[in-house]
Specification:
The chain is mainly α. The chain has one domain (about 5-140): Tetratricopeptide repeat domain (Serine Threonine Protein Phosphatase 5, Tetratricopeptide repeat, Alpha Horseshoe). Helices cover about 80% and strands about 0% of the residues. The protein contains eight helices and no strands. The longest helix has 17 residues, at about 105-125.
Length: about 140
């Protein structure tokens, strides 16, 4: 029996939180995105996994879909900004400004983004692009 998209997504999140390597989770999140093309959270997760595995071009494509599906998701905005920095694309400021506005208004979103950034820096130390985004969002 095939797992539901929701069950597959939840399992992927749990495995990520348990410390599983991003490389092994990418196929699972790709399947979720293929089966549920309009689920922005799945695209956001896939973009993050691509960023963690040094695949910024794939991350940018996934993050772009996530932002298009849910422009009010600050994590999707963080992901696209990091991917843009890593691929030398222009237009980073717009995404940073939207993310700043969103996390200023909703403290739960601020906490979530902050935790995700710290998790990213733990999994990938000295991640310059993420450190820049963190400074723009939280040190201003």
């Amino acid at each position: 029996m095939t797992q539901t998209v929701e069950a597959l997504f939840d399992e992927g999140i749990e495995r990520y939180k348990a410390g599983e390597a991003p490389e092994t989770l990418i196929p699972m999140f790709k399947e979720v995105c293929d089966r549920s093309r309009k689920t922005s959270s799945a695209w956001t997760c896939l973009a993050w996994l691509y960023l963690l595995t040094d695949k910024p071009t794939l991350a940018y494509d996934a993050a772009q879909k996530a932002v298009k599906l849910n422009p009010q998701d600050p994590q999707a905005r963080v992901n696209i900004a990091v991917a843009m920095l890593e691929t030398s694309k222009k237009g980073v400021r717009e995404h940073i400004e939207v993310a700043q506005q969103l996390i200023m208004v909703v403290s739960e979103l601020r906490d979530e983004v902050q935790q995700n950034i710290e998790d990213g820096l733990t999994r990938k130390p000295n991640w310059k692009s993420l450190e820049r985004v963190k400074a723009w969002l939280f040190d201003s």
